């Protein structure tokens, strides 16, 4: 496969919608925000390629877990939404190099 795609799915629409500022939502809704991140499988053959893909996943997570522009401080529910979205994407891609990049990133932020 030359091009693979992964969808970043939130663990429920409640987290995604709460991050967007909606007060209540059904946790089983299939309308959870998602973004497809396309990448070449060859990217994952190098550490720099895995880091580049990880940055793209983080950018996509910021798109599906937006924060209101009213605050400069990232809200805890937005951070959790982004972390869960990235973890789900890394898990779905199932690559040791990418998982190592993710583990290093979460240990720095944790």
Query: Could you tell me the number of beta strands?
Result: 2
How many structural domains are formed by the residues?
Answer: 1
Helix/strand order: EHEHHH
Which residue ranges are poorly predicted, with pLDDT under 50 across at least 5 consecutive positions? 1-29
Distance between the termini: 35 Å
Class per helix and strand makeup: mainly alpha
How much of the residues is beta strand, in percent?
5-15%
Globular, elongated, flat, extended or rod-shaped: what is the shape? globular
- What's the quaternary structure here? single chain
Work out the helix count. Answer: 4
User: How would you characterize the largest beta sheet?
Assistant: 2 strands, antiparallel
Radius of gyration over C-alpha positions, nearest whole angstrom:
14 Å
What's the average pLDDT? 76
- In spatial order, strands of the major sheet run 1-2
Classify the helix fraction into a percent range: 40-55%
Describe this structure in words.
- By secondary structure, the chain is mainly alpha-helical.
- It has one domain (3-109).
- 52% of the residues lie in helices and 9% in strands.
- The protein is built from 4 helices and 2 strands, in the order βαβααα.
- It has helices at 13-19, 47-64, 76-93, 96-109, and strands at 3-7, 36-40.
- The protein has a two-stranded antiparallel ribbon.
- The radius of gyration is 14 Å and the shape is globular.
How are the SSEs ordered, and which strands pair?
Layout: E1 3-7, H1 13-19, E2 36-40, H2 47-64, H3 76-93, H4 96-109
Antiparallel strand pairs: 1-2
